[in-house]
Specification:
Number of helices: 1
Mean pLDDT: 87
Number of domains: 1
Structural class: mainly beta
CATH class: Mainly Beta
Number of strands: 9
Strand content: over 45%
Order of helices and strands: HEEEEEEEEE
Distance between the termini: 81 Å
Shape: elongated
CATH topology: Immunoglobulin-like
Low-confidence stretches: 1-23
CATH architecture: Sandwich
Radius of gyration: 22 Å
């Protein structure tokens, strides 16, 4: 009887759901996102250049590797030349002094409005950040919503 209870206990211990190792994971900091459109209001059918400026909050640094990516998964009334923009390095960086961005280069998109009005682009911003004070580093992401004006 004791062996049966021991085996049953082992099976329960192995099969029981475990707490996820990152269940106490801190929420990633929210980045500041500012959009710059050139020209300020595009004509229908005219290519507009969209610059997305990403700024980390005070005390946070964004890493060059694996970089910063914005992938657009929803857009209204716009044709996009590409749905994904990236800045940073695709290869690991060996020089510690060059790990982080001093300032993050803007993410660039080219869009063509298909109708007049204010159009919305939505997507996910992905980044790898470090807390300057503690040295804690982790991946982060946030949803972003951008607007493009057309006449």
């Amino acid at each position: 009887m004791k062996s049966w209870l021991l085996i049953f206990g082992l099976v329960v211990a192995v099969c029981a759901p475990q707490a996820a190792p990152n269940s106490k994971k801190k929420a990633a900091p929210t980045m500041g996102v500012r959009v710059e459109q050139q020209p300020g209001t595009a004509s229908v059918g005219q290519t507009a250049r969209i610059k997305v400026h990403v700024t980390p909050p005070e005390g946070i640094r964004l890493n060059r590797y694996p970089g910063v990516t914005l992938e657009i998964d929803k857009n209204d009334g716009l044709r996009l030349a590409a749905k994904k923009a990236f800045v940073g390095s695709t290869k690991p960086i060996s020089d510690v002094a060059k790990f982080g961005f001093e300032t993050v280069d803007p993410l660039l998109f080219e869009v063509v409005p298909t109708s007049p009005g204010t159009h919305v682009m939505e997507g996910t911003l992905k980044y790898f950040y470090c807390v300057k004070k503690s040295g804690y580093c982790a991946p982060g992401q946030q949803r972003v919503r951008l607007t493009v004006k057309a006449r």
